[in-house]
Request: fold
Amino acid sequence: MNEQREIEIDLRKVFSMLKKRILYIILGTLITAVLAGCITEFFITPTYTASCTLYVYSNTDRVSTDSSIGQNEITASQQLVNTYIVVLESDRVLEEVVQNLDLDMTVSQLRSMISCAQINETEIFNVTVTSASPALAADIANSIADVAPDAIVDTIKAGGVSVIDYAKVPSSPSSPDFKLNILIGALVGLVVTFLIFFIRELFDTTVTEEADLEREFENIPVIGTIPRLIPSAAKVEESSGGENKPRTEIGKGGRK
Reply:
């Protein structure tokens, strides 16, 4: 029962603190949200992504014939995808891309801008390029789509790659997410301001009500409380007038 009562009292103090400090908590939340928005807008460089889609096939004979695709061929193509991705990200392919586009960057820098991923364990994969320039991202992706098929066939000597979709110039940045960053900033501000006031309340040992004494000294009864007396305006004026009057009379007596 004592533990239950102590928890209830603590919760009441927390809710009371929230009511008193709610404006400060809201203000702190708004400030951090605005700050996150400003940092996102003015200090973070937006990046754009462009992707091309390629299809892997293992049987080169089907290109010149009307034969249907069997399950074995599909399975073999799916297994070749990861191998083809390794070749696509090799220095041989990327060096040719750098030369074709006359890029002012190294192969390692170009590789850091590229990511490849198989789509749902099929024989299709995406090549995604991320850059601060939307046009450059599309140009690099399309150059890879042009260079990779021949380079892969020359290297692996099996199967082949065909382009399904070429990359288009992105119209909007993929990063940063302006709305998401504002939401994260607001949540951080809410949590931080709440924790500040909560910790202050937790370590505040000031006795403000009878329940504080009862919680600290369970076995000692409270004999009485002293009310906070606030003098009325009339009593204050009377008190100040009574103090000034004798001073005036003393002054007169001194002149006599």
Observations:
- The chain is about 60% helix and 10% strand.
